[in-house]
Design goal:
This protein is an alpha+beta fold. The protein has a single domain, classed as Transposase IS200-like (Alpha-Beta Plaits), CATH 3.30.70.1290. 39% of the residues lie in helices and 18% in strands. The chain has a 4-stranded antiparallel β-sheet with strand order 2-3-1-4, sandwiched between helices. Helix 1 crosses helix 2. The longest helix has 18 residues. The chain is globular, with a radius of gyration of 19 Å.
């Protein structure tokens, strides 16, 4: 081929991945720090915007007074631990810096990270979207206990 020398021919290959993860984490000691819809919305918007700046794709985020649910599509160079560390660490710093809660705000160290099949992404998105109405019927502790059983987690995680 004219203009192409043998060693100068370079082909670019791209990695294509789609790994959906449903993250769930609570406030420290499950304290209801996020005690109004307005405050929660402010925090969720900030988390999503900050994640975008860090190259983390949050598809959907919502939660309740004592916890957060987040549906994330991991990028090729991202892992679960680093992603959640960035989200939780920066958001608690931001909440405290802006004095959004009466007391010092903290997230619990632990979290759930559950893989999600592409075929049920819409179902998970709807579940996350409906947290306000869902938690009028079931507490986070009840949801937590159900998840321990449903996903086969070791009960020592609390």
């Amino acid at each position: 081929m004219p203009g192409l020398a043998g060693n100068n021919l370079k082909t670019k290959f791209m990695s294509f991945i789609k790994v959906w993860i449903h993250f769930v984490w609570s406030t420290k000691n499950r304290k209801p720090y996020l005690d109004s819809i307005e405050l929660r919305q402010k925090v969720w918007i900030h988390i999503k915007e900050n994640a975008k700046e860090k190259g983390i794709y949050i598809d959907f985020i919502n939660g309740y007074s004592d916890h957060c649910h987040c549906l994330i599509s991991l990028g090729v160079d991202q892992n679960i631990q680093k992603t959640i560390q960035l989200i939780k660490g920066e958001s608690s710093f931001w909440i405290n810096k802006n004095r959004l809660t009466k007391e010092k705000f903290e997230w619990q160290d632990e979290y759930f990270a559950i893989s999600v099949s592409e075929s049920i992404v819409d179902k998970v998105r709807d579940y996350i979207k409906n947290q306000e109405s869902h938690h009028k019927k079931k507490t986070f502790q009840e949801e937590y206990d159900d998840s321990i059983i449903k996903f086969g987690f070791d009960k020592t995680f609390k």
